[in-house]
Amino acid sequence: MGGDGNSAYGHTTFSRSRSHFTDRITADGRDGWPVTAGRYRLVVSRACPWASRAVVSRRLLGLEDALPMAVADPIQDDRSWRFTLDPDGRDPVLGIRFLSEAYDRRETDYPGGVSVPAVVDVPSGRLVTNDYQQLTLDLATEWTSLHRDGAPDLYPASRRDEIDEVMADVYRDVNNGVYRAGFANEQKQYEEACTALFRRLELLAERLAGQRYLVGDTLTEADVRLFTTLVRFDAVYHGHFKCNRWKLAENRVLWAYARDLFQTPGFGDTVDFDHIKRHYYQVHTGINPTGIVPLGPDLAGWLSPHRREELGGRPFGDGTAPGPVPEGERVAPEGRPA
After folding, report:
1. Strand, coil or helix: 44
2. Active-site residue, selected from the candidate residues 179, 190, 257, 280
3. Catalytic: 179?
4. Residue 48 designated active-site
């Protein structure tokens, strides 16, 4: 998610900009950024679905110590994502007030705005990458030497073609589709995006009716990417983005699938519904000028039985579930189902 205040959304044609900084952090360091424990800082917003992919993957793979995380305030301003959740309004490691400072140290007058997730090189304070599409794939495949014992293989080589195909459809129609619908400024644009979104959701429901996960019998990167949109669906996309043909909770298969993931360690324990709702409803003034944040929906359903285990499957493959959330990274009570 960018950092321009989003006041233009709903008034101008929406187009998602490509990541401008696409350096990769790899095992062999071929881009000049070798995988090194503690060298980099992952900057995220818990409100942002693109950043939340990285938060989920990092936790599933056990990279919390190797890749420390900074959580930005969900309410950004025109100067970009802010560290106002930290003492003195500064990130305690990077020493900056705004994520834009790390971008500026890398390049001035860069295109595309300031977005999360972002990985910053701690010694230099410079941005390394904001390539949200590649980042989680690299966490799964390039950071293996630092994975926890029992970490799942989220991007197995034997399944990558199928995973890539599923993820491309999900990105176009679902992950990005909700934004194309919500930020449309013409009726035709909105209707095309909304129609494609729900057609894809129905196809995904058909796929998931007989199998627990999107690809194979274990969790993969494809599930991570679909989850971060589904978990926001009823809270913000249904009303705020007018994606309201039906609620997630009204689709038997997808609602059970989303609850199954939410209740799996590494997924729901990273979700902050308070951050999600306040960001969308208070920052997107182009489509919600009052800034009023709705009270609903009731979150209790996320903890209800889903029965997806009856389909079999091994969530973590030959691995194990991640341990407890580190104390400093626990979501506050107001952001979680009671």
Report:
1. strand
2. 179
3. yes
4. yes
